[in-house]
Write a structure and sequence with these properties.
The complex is a heterodimer of chains A (649) and B (148). By secondary structure, chain A is an alpha+beta fold. Chain A is built from 17 helices and 16 strands. In chain A, helix 2 runs antiparallel to helix 5, helix 11 runs antiparallel to helix 12 and helix 15 packs antiparallel against helix 16. With 148 residues, chain B is an alpha/beta fold. Chain B has a 5-stranded parallel β-sheet, with helices on both faces. In chain B, strand 4, helix 5 and strand 5 form a beta-alpha-beta unit. In chain B, helix 2 crosses helix 6 and helix 3 runs parallel beside helix 4. The chains are: A alpha+beta (649), B alpha/beta (148).
Chain lengths: 649, 148
């Protein structure tokens, strides 16, 4: 871990300002230090030199003035001569030594001794404590040295002055240093502010904010730099904008390419799948799938084609289709059609399903169903034929047609038979019935009792037979003698039915109620017969109470539902279907007379009108017969039956 | 005047191919009150020959009433009717169509051919006898017909 000062230094030196400031501070420090060291020393030196000069002049003057007195050993004069020297305030001591070494006169001899005045020479002018400047000069008279003058000047004043000036200098240095520091800081701040701003701007720009511009605050180099910088950023911005545009379009293009690639991949996948599918379909198809190129040659031949025609794929491919497969009678039409097809891709057979004949490898002709379609491959028209061997279908169709016509015939015959039989049976039966009745009339009680019985049974049987035939005729007539449907008012129809039933209504004391009934498309006669049958049954099969019959109709979505409700003996559910069959009866003739034709005829009438008939009943609690008649009457339901037998009858 | 008053037996021509019906008609007429001569022919050609007194029918009487069946061999009863009613001499003779057919179209067609009446033979013997008697009574006692 780095120490704090190093970090600080690092921080200081990391900016230009820091570096510059440090350098300047270093320089100012150096200069201050130099001033602090150099000037006091120089001052001292100069002061000492001045002192020295002063000392020298004083010693010389004093030496000259005392020289005669010394020579004469005139102490008084010497003292007097010294007085002049003593005028100097800085004088510490004066010692005059005779040639003999004897001290002749002295001022402050003690101090002189203390300063070791003897030891004064060129190299040693300062006293031990440095506070006294020592000089020595020989006293000369007439060219002869007669003694020596020693003099000491106080340096105390000097030293004090030096000390003060040193302090002043130190203060000045410190002031310079501090002022320098402040100036450097200020200058550096002022000088580097635009730079810092620019740095900040650059940082912002580098972070992506290209709208930032350097502030131009001066006309100097920095201002110039800022201007240039702004220009550069302008260029950068426009370049960046362009770059971004290019980038965007590149990205878009890349996206498109990716999409294109994906699409292509998908398309390839789809193609592969479709090829796979085609292969699967074409190889597993029961139909022959054959492709023909623009020259009419077979270019594709699936396995089913092999099976149908007997040629293997390698035998068929490359051969001319019509030569290989088509009977000669088609060739001319084929040539005409194919030349048009190769030019236009169109033809009478294209898009159609045709029934033709084709030839197998073994030469046999067989019926086919062929669908042709056109495909344009590399600018030329090719054809795809899907064909199937319709031999079996043709046979089945023929058989079906035969069966159908047989069925139609037999159905017609049956209808006709029922009509004709019942019609023509009536003639001989009428004879039988008439003559047994004539026998009965003429010979009753004239033969024996057995004969009377036998004749009576024969008469009864023939009458019943006549009823049955009449009913059968009525039944077959529903289909053969029906009228065309027209708007029929059911109110009127029911009125007529009730008129026909008047006798039985009166005899039974029946109470017949009804709701308003609609108008429907129907054969009015048959509808009347239907109501008559149902109401007649309701009256006929009454229990102990007098019959109550209610007729109503309800509108359903597509049809009317009519109901005939009674309070009669009812019908057990297991017989609900049986009662609608012809000649089916649930009671003996002695209980309830009748042949059992009524409901069969009713059912046939309802069915001819396209409706349904059914029964809701509970034994002993009455029955309700429902039947429907469609609102929108279609063509008559059994048109064929009607027409076929209508013509025959 | 009507037949009853003339005193002579009434002449009836029955055109019917079925001997059973011929006999039944005969039996029914026998039970009637009128004296009658019933002539019978079995087909349409014979019927017209009888009426025109041709062939073996030379000297045949002119019938006072014709019972005509519709379904006949050789010549259909409808054609016979048409020819009778087209013939100036014969068209005044009343023609009773007596048939087993109940068909509407037969009824309409025969009346259009000017049949004098159309009767469906009742299936029941009693009814049949009753009808024949009624017809006889009606045409020979109630209705007035032109002479000769």
């Amino acid at each position: 871990m780095e120490s704090f000062p190093r970090l600080f230094l690092k921080a200081q030196f990391s900016t230009i300002r820091g570096k510059l400031a440090s350098l300047i501070i270093f320089l100012i420090g150096g200069i201050s230090f130099f001033i602090f060291i150099y000037f006091p020393a120089r001052l001292e030196e100069q002061a000492i030199r001045a002192i020295a000069a002063k000392a020298q002049s004083i010693t010389r003057m004093t030496a000259f003035s005392v020289s005669a007195a010394l020579f004469f050993e005139d102490l008084e004069s010497i003292e007097g001569a010294l007085e002049g020297a003593k005028q100097n305030q800085d004088l510490v001591y004066v010692v005059i030594r005779a040639e003999s070494g004897r001290v002749t006169a002295a001022f402050n001899r003690d101090k002189a001794e203390e300063a070791n005045f003897i030891q004064t020479n060129e190299d040693n002018h300062l006293s031990g404590d440095g506070m006294i400047y020592k000089t020595m000069t020989p006293i000369v008279l007439n060219g002869r040295e007669i003694g020596e003058l020693y003099l000491g000047l106080s340096l105390e004043k000097l030293r004090t002055e030096i000390k003060w000036s040193r302090r002043t200098i130190a203060l000045v240095s410190l002031f310079i240093f501090i002022f320098g520091m402040i100036a450097v800081y200020g200058i550096s701040v002022v000088a580097t502010r635009p730079l810092s701003q620019m740095v900040e701007t650059v940082e912002q720009i580098s972070k992506g904010d290209l709208t930032r511009r350097a502030v131009i605050s001066s006309q100097d180099e920095v201002g110039h730099l800022a201007r240039s910088f702004n220009l550069m950023v302008d260029n950068l911005e426009s370049a960046y904008g362009e770059l971004q545009n290019v980038n965007q379009s590149l990205e878009k293009r890349a996206k498109e390419l990716r999409q294109e690639i994906n699409e292509r991949k998908r398309a390839e996948e789809a193609l592969r799948e479709s090829e796979e599918r085609f292969r699967t379909i074409s190889t597993t198809a029961k139909d022959a799938i054959i492709m023909v190129d623009n020259k009419g040659n077979i270019s594709y031949w699936n396995p089913a084609a092999e099976g149908i025609f007997g040629y293997l794929s390698q035998e068929a491919i490359g051969r001319e289709l019509h030569v290989l497969l088509a009977p000669k009678r088609y060739h001319e039409a084929y040539h005409k059609g194919f030349s048009r097809f190769t030019e236009t891709g169109q033809g009478d057979a294209i898009g159609e399903t045709l029934e033709l004949e084709a030839i197998r490898k073994d030469g046999t002709e067989f019926p086919i169903e062929i669908s042709l379609s056109a495909i344009k491959i590399k600018g030329s028209w090719h054809a795809v034929a899907i064909l199937r061997d319709t031999t079996e279908r043709k046979q089945a169709e023929a058989k079906l047609k035969q069966t159908l016509s047989k069925l139609e015939r037999s159905n017609g015959e049956l209808q006709h038979f029922a009509y004709v039989a019942s019609h023509d049976l009536q003639e001989p039966l009428r004879m039988v019935a008439s003559y047994v009745q004539l026998l009965q009339r003429r010979y009753k009680s004239k033969l024996d009792a057995d004969a009377d019985d036998f004749i009576a049974y024969a008469v009864d049987g023939s009458k019943r037979m006549q009823n049955l035939i009449n009913d059968l005729l009525a039944y077959s007539r529903v289909g053969t003698r029906g009228k065309e449907f027209e708007m029929t008012n059911c109110q009127v129809v029911v009125d007529r039915a009730l008129t026909n039933l008047q006798v039985s209504v009166e005899e039974s004391g029946a109470e017949i109620t009804r709701e308003p009934l609609p108008t429907v498309m129907a054969d009015g006669v048959q509808l009347g017969q239907l109501f008559q049958n149902l109401i007649g049954n309701a009256i006929k099969f009454h229990g102990d109470h007098p019959p109550r019959v209610h007729v109503c109709a309800q509108a359903k979505e597509n049809e009317w539902e009519f109901s005939v409700q009674d309070n009669g003996i009812g019908i057990a559910p297991q017989f609900a279907d049986r009662i609608f069959q012809i000649f089916q009866r649930l009671h003996t003739r002695t209980e309830y007379p009748g042949t059992g034709i009524g409901l069969a005829v009713s059912k046939k009438i309802v069915e001819r009108h396209g409706g349904r008939i059914w029964l809701e009943s509970e034994l002993g609690k009455g029955s309700t017969f429902h039947f429907t008649i469609p609102k929108e009457m279609r063509k008559e339901v059994d048109q064929y039956e009607y027409e076929a037998v209508g013509q025959a009858g | 005047m009507n037949m009853k008053q003339s005193g002579r037996p009434v002449e009836i021509l029955l055109v019917e191919d079925n001997p059973g019906d011929v006999r039944l008609t005969l039996e029914a007429l026998r039970e009637g009150k009128m004296r009658n001569n019933l002539s019978v022919v079995e087909d349409g050609v014979e019927a017209l020959a009888f009426l025109c007194r041709e062939g073996r029918h030379v000297g045949a009487p002119r019938p006072d009433l014709i019972f005509l069946d519709l379904n006949l061999p050789k010549k259909d009863g409808r054609e016979v009717l048409a020819q009778i009613k087209a013939d100036e001499n014969l068209k005044s003779i009343p023609v009773v169509v007596l048939t087993t057919s109940k068909a509407e179209e037969d009824i309409i067609k025969t009346y259009n051919l000017h049949a004098n009446c159309y009767v469906t033979k009742p299936v029941d013997l009693e009814q049949f006898i009753k009808v024949v008697k009624l017809l006889e009574d009606f045409w020979f006692t109630i209705v007035k017909l032109p002479q000769g």
